[in-house]
Amino acid sequence: MKRLALPLAVVLVCGVAIIAQSVDPAMLLKPPVDSWPTYHGDYSGQRHSKLTAITPGNVNQLTLAWAFATNQTQQIKGTPILVNGVIYLTTPDNIWAVDGRTARQLWRYTYPPNDAFHIGHRGAAVYKDSVFLTTPDAHLVALDARTGAVKWDVMIADAKRGFWSTNAPLLIRNHLIVGVAGDFDNLPGTLKSFDPDTGKVQWTFYSTPPPGTPDSISGGATGGQMWMTGTYDPDLNLFYVGTGNPTPVLNGEVRPGDNAWTCSIVALNPDTGKLAWGFQASPHDTHDWDASEVPVLVDGSFNGSARKLLLQASRNGYFFVLDRTTGKSLLTVPFAAANWAKGIDKDGRPIPNSDKEPLRDGRLVAPNEAGATNYRSPSFDPRTGLLLVSAVDAYGIYFFKKEHGAYGWAGANSSVWSKAELRAIEYQTGKIKWTHELGDGAGGAGVLTTESGLTFTGDNNGNVMALRTSDGTTLWHSAIGRVGNSPITYELDGRQYIVFGGGSSLYAFALPESARQTPPATAGAAAPPTQGGRGGGPVKSPEVAGDRRVTFRLRAPNASEVAVSLGGKQLPMHKDEQGIWSMTTDALAPDIYTYALIVDGDAMNDPSNRQAQTSFIGFQSMFAVPGPGPWLPAPAVERGAIARHPFHSAVANDDRDFFVYTPPGYDARREQPYPVLYLLHGLGDDSERWMNGGAANNILDNLIAQGKAVPMIVVSPLGYGTSNGPTGGRTPENITGYTKILLEEVMPVVDKAYNVSRNREQRAIAGLSMGGAESLFVGLNHLDQFAWIGAFSSAPMLWPATAPAAERVAGVAPQPMDVSVFAKTFPGLDAKANSQLRMLWIVCGTADGLIGVNRQFKDWLRSKGVQFTEQEVPGMGHVWPLWRQNLTDMVPKLFQPKRK
Amino acid sequence: MRLGMVALLCAWASALGYAQTPGTPPPTAASPASKRPPATTAAQTYPPEQIQAGQPRFASQCGFCHGRDGAGGESGPDLTRSMLVAEDVRGDKIAPVVRAGRPDKGMPAIPLSDADMTAVVAFIHDAKTKAESASGGRRSVDVDDLQTGNAAEGKQYFNGAGGCATCHALSSGFATIGSRFQGLGLLQRMLYPGSGRDAGAAAAPPMVTITTSSGQVISGKLANRDEFTISVTDANGWTRSWPLSAVRIDGGENPLRAHIEHLAKYTDKDMHNVFAYLQTLR
Q: Which residues, in sequence order, are CB contacts of B104 under 8 Å at separation 6+?
């Protein structure tokens, strides 16, 4: 809205009755969102729009806003441009001005019949009130943008010699830069700059100077036509454009050497046409691999420093990263099948293998003549650092013999097979992050990305699609016919449009006007009639990628809203066409995580994930992000075992179990019995919790492997003294019953089943919360059995002597305890215990509501002269990460010999 | 599981059948690009002004793909060696193709006026006459060009390292492949059947079995498949489509997968040796 205000004011002052943004050069430096004013949308060639109205969450509602049929047979291959609400669309000989809101034709101009190739057309250019059209017979026509009336018509190059033009010109200040094509004949690579007001030639650049020109470095080659639209860096004042193949095309014998500057990226001064630098993507090309593909300009970090970069996924199958200030190579790596190079030279150029040059008996070469990619534009998504390229794995056979001559094509070739995939290339490494299949044959569609994380393109089966940029998942599609151009987007009246060329028509998609503000709650209603969670096979969830980003998926075609609850946040998931919801997190730190899926407001575990943290009443989905960390399995570390011991408890009169960890290499016949740690869980947990959520086995494995801990047995029993589980946890019988079960039912079994010591010096008991209270209760009352005691975030109000019972509730911040409870709980405990205790460790986070009662108990111990070690962890609450750390800190201290 | 096995067997049988049985329609022509152009069936003459008028029309509408002289371009066939052109009489074969296009091969429909069509037809026939009198086509690949392989080594590769014999038993159809295809057509067929204009028909579409959500089972030939839908032509010739998400699919694997995988494995020497061996299968 701000943008409207200024032109309006100007208009009022001038008294002119039009409201129009003039396409002046300054506007091209920063195109407004209600325009797509030049072939690539802006000078960078990124084809990335800042528009965010259409999102991964609402893109499945995209609907047809309008269609415009050219009623021609020519497929639309050009990128339409949009200024002043008017779309300018081209095919060979034709340009239409179409209302960008209604698709109503404003005017059409048809160039007079001519005999040059009518192979395709890339698009128009606009400057002030002129629109420019290049023609098959290599003329440049300036038309009145309002009416289509011809202003002037000049020849770019001589069509009689074999030049033609499909080019969308690029305007830089007052230079209109126009290229031509012409590789059916041996013609010099020619690029011209015209005065957009008068049509006068300002300069001509020859990529291969006309034969006989002094100082030519092309080695006798002609060609290197610049038929694609380039890009421009205003800061460096450099114009970048790719050059085409050399001629004769397949006969390399008559043009020895590298044939500069064919199959190259060249940087020119747009004011003079002088070459600043050149980089040859294919030295001595003999396969028709123009390096015409868009030189995409990116300002980004490379090897840790900020650089001005130029990216090109080239027709020869290689991805190039250059420093665009100097033209020096930073990275060269293949992004598609390529078997023609025998290495990369010191300047980053692939070295052609002469055995793959066309020969009389044929050479099987990848890519084929159409290349690993072609003129359809890639898109760079700055948010993810991905260059999205319509890539082709293709094979062809190439022939050349003397009889083919040295003019024009001069050889024979045929394509064998090819397959297209959209590939997401990480610009810093060239690694392919994901691929999305587009079908057999070469891909026909260019790519557009938006700041909301969407990628738009088309496949080989007549579908246009919206994909999620981070992982390539399809979120929307429409079968409009085969896309032959690169999609664009713009916003008019606050409504975002996505425009594709399908066949010979133009289609604009937008969100339904009624749904633009609030997405309907019944988005799932249109899902295909499959059974939720069943049809179509399993989904993988969660998927932890190598970059530590985690993807969650859920098949729920009828759900309206799904989110992941992770780390206290609800992360929205998005539904694809198969009814599968998904989302990918940012990179997570290596650790153990729990999460839930929130489906239409209800939390559920992830049905695709068998990893879970258990509790007495259920379980919670979990996953680990691998990496260094005390409770993550280190690679190549010997792992211990976990055994489950079911038994009937006579004390509680229920069936229950305990879990036993044995260290790696556990030896049941070892002469020296193993020490044993009884490790107790908290209220609500179950006997297995320390093994899954607590990762006790990983912690022990790692510490033992590092030599920091003595190999020991760890026993984790169910911590409830009655059959009522956590409900009974607040009754006085809970801890007394539990003590009996441990001492009379569990320990005798352990002593018998395992090679464990019965010496108190070789027994430890530790636990968290309720388990901490139990450890203190059992340990301090049975010093004849245990010499090592650990209490993590313990809940002393659960001790049986607490009265009334309501105070035993392990709340966030329980009331201060009646200190007389301590004496009742530990009658006779005093300084005499110090000689028996090898360890009494009391630890609690300062943000834990239990810190107060822990401090009360410690004060009481001090008053009794009982020595202990304590730790108060700043800022930590009542959480598992602390307890895993507590165990990690405690285990190395256990069972160490007495210091003399 | 059982369904899957049956369908898999079907696809496998189809791939084998393709190789072993003469069910594939016999190719109508050996590679025209590998030998002298086929002679024009019915001699025709055209007035020079018609030919002259056809030249620019042909150049602008057809030339990029077929070459300005009709002898083949970047993607279109050499019309001077085309069987269709040889059999054409005053546009009776050419005109329908021009008007309808060949969308499956990437040729658009080109709506020429009757006058322009007549002129273009005249130009093509004239180009053919000129090509017949010329020696060594500019873009030709002759059978003689391809004789650099060693048939014995090719046979060894075929039966051994190449793994070709796994699918191709030398019985019935395949045993005479060298008599049915020659030169470039044979080479193209060897690399990927259906890939070249003279490489014969592509493999028969694989069989596929669809199980709908209501439990209905439909088997037929795979007609099309993309990311979203699958189309099957049943035994009665009806083609039906389903969204992929709504059905279970068994079978439908490309029987030529081994050919695709082989493209990355061939050395040029192996390729020429196997070609030499296939020429001996007559």
A: none
